[in-house]
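Weekly sync, protein design subgroup
Attendees: M.S., D.O., the rotation student, P.L. (late)

Item 1: inverse folding check
M.S. brought a backbone from last month's batch and wanted to see whether the design step gives back something sensible before we order anything. D.O. pointed out we never logged the input encoding, so this time it goes straight into the notes. Structure tokens as presented (519 positions):
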């Protein structure tokens, strides 16, 4: 049986449009699923929307409509956006899906029956933006650190999950599996949250009285209450693969990878493992945490209103170019800044100049000096062997970087192969060699080496830039080059057959001139 791979994005709130932050997480997940498919693994990618809770009710009330109508409108918007941008997810889950409600209720009942849920009075400061009670550390000058708004004081009788009972187990598990939460500094943050000084408290309020909020999943053991939105939302990762007894659950849960932003580290690093432990389910394989996209040094967010829309980026620059920028620019785990001049500089340097140039020079010269057919290579010289070795090295570097969640390094490595091939072309000068009787017989080998390097590049790029990769294959006369073949065979040097009809085509990524608007 082939190996399996399961990747999830957070399920996004249905209170506003998709922006650069959601797009980044979703693109990383899509890239990982594509890469693992390229290795011949059985993959499942889950994304979707988080539709319950006060936040959605608030939007519905503001607009004079129902939460259901708001949720459906935005769920469709997210789904349509990912479809248009070519995100290859396997399921788009909505927390209002009937199978999800059943799974949430069965888990609530299980935890209740195990005696881990208690009923009592609680008073605290609640942030509707976060959908949770805040601690002192979550606030600056009386405002929520993330949402920059004042929390409300709330007191009510509720049900509490005794997650503190699992804290010492969780801390030991994290210590024993140091790469469960990665990169490392987020692991340390979770360990700090679990320490007594953090003030986190071991009780998680998991209910909301219907008299205040009836937009949610009803508690199976008390119909006066609905489930707290985070307890409901996290369970989507189980519903998505058929918990508790679907065969997909068995295949995919042990190899699950969550991708999240650092804003939701606490629910994923603390609440979720405790919930899983309480129901006797294993932890996901990794919790992968990335930083924030900032604009003018402030987090891009719905509540701050400083959004960067993926559709607008698609219209202006093409989605592949934007996708490249996101994956290449952000060091996974750290914050990054977005600006259009930075985006344009990246596109011009890496895609128009480096990759675009290699494609156009190679295919133009194959047209001119080899009748447009992939030439047959002669015996390789030293320079050809360097390219072949570079391709092999880059293939293994990309594997290492992708598996360790360093997309930026993987792309840097691929750009290194393109760069080396451009330099090789300069060295061999086929445009001059073709006219020099002493060197003319080198030309087929030179052009083959460039075509083959482009093929390997297209294989490696296919998870990152699927459309661009497809276009390169097509120009090299290869149809669906990825069908029925997998890594590492796919990148084995010499895989490109001589005689294939190539095609020049327009520039892959035209250079973008900087205008006053984009400055
Ligand atoms: O938190 N930079 O949904 P959400 C990078 N429904 N990524 C960002 C970002 C930014 N500036 N802003 C948002 C929720 N994101 C819950 C999740 S999961 C069971 C429930 C991304 O719509 C990032 O992935 O607020 C972040 O974790 C997520 O969007 C939050 O999306």
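Designed sequence read out in the meeting:
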């Amino acid at each position: 049986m082939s190996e399996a791979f399961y990747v999830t994005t957070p399920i996004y709130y249905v209170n506003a449009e998709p922006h650069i932050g959601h797009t980044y997480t979703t693109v990383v997940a899509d890239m990982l699923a594509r890469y693992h498919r390229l290795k011949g693994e059985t993959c499942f990618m889950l994304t979707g929307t988080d539709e319950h809770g006060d936040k959605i009710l608030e939007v519905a009330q503001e607009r004079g409509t129902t939460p259901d109508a708001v949720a459906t409108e935005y769920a469709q918007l997210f789904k349509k956006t990912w479809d248009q941008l070519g995100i290859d997810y396997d399921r788009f889950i909505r927390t209002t899906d009937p199978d999800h409600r059943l799974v949430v209720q069965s888990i609530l009942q299980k935890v209740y029956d195990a005696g881990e849920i208690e009923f009592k009075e609680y008073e605290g400061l609640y942030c509707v933006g976060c959908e949770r009670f805040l601690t002192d550390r979550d606030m600056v000058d009386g405002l929520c650190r993330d949402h920059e708004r004042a929390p409300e004081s709330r007191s009510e009788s509720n049900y509490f999950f005794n997650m503190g009972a699992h804290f010492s187990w969780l801390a030991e598990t994290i210590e024993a599996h140091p790469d469960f939460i990665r990169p490392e500094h987020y692991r340390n943050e979770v360990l700090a949250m679990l320490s007594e000084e953090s003030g986190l408290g071991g009780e998680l309020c998991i209910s909301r009285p219907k008299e205040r909020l009836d937009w949610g999943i009803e508690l199976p053991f008390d119909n006066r209450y609905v489930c707290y939105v985070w307890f409901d939302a996290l369970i989507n990762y189980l519903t998505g693969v058929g918990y508790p007894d679907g065969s997909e659950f068995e295949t995919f849960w042990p190899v699950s990878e969550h991708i999240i932003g650092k804003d939701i580290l606490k629910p994923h690093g603390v609440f979720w493992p405790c919930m899983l432990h309480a129901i006797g389910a294993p932890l996901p394989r990794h919790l992968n945490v990335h930083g924030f996209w900032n604009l003018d040094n402030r987090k891009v967010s719905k509540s701050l209103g400083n959004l960067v829309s993926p559709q607008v980026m698609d219209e202006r620059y093409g989605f592949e170019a934007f996708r490249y920028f996101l994956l290449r620019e952000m060091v996974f785990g750290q914050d990054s800044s977005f600006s259009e001049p930075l985006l344009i500089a990246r596109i011009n340097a890496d895609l128009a100049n480096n990759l675009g140039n290699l494609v156009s020079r190679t295919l133009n010269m194959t047209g001119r000096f080899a009748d447009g057919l992939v030439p047959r290579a002669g015996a390789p010289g030293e320079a050809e062997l360097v390219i072949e070795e570079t391709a092999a090295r880059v293939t293994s570097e990309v594997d290492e970087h992708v598996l360790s969640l360093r997309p930026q390094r993987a792309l840097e490595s691929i750009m290194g192969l393109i760069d080396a091939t451009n330099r090789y072309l300069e060295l061999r000068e086929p445009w001059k060699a073709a006219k020099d009787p002493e060197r003319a017989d080198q030309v087929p080998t030179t052009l083959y080496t460039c075509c083959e390097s482009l093929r390997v590049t297209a294989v490696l790029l296919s998870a990152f830039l699927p459309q661009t990769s497809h276009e390169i294959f097509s120009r090299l006369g290869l149809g669906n080059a990825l069908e029925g073949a997998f890594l590492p065979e796919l990148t084995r040097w010499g895989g490109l057959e001589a005689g294939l009809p190539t095609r020049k085509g327009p520039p892959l990524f035209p250079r973008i001139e900087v205008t006053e608007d984009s400055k």
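Discussion: The CA atoms of residues 126 and 215 lie 17 Å apart. The longest helix spans residues 340-369.
Action: P.L. to compare against the previous round before Friday.
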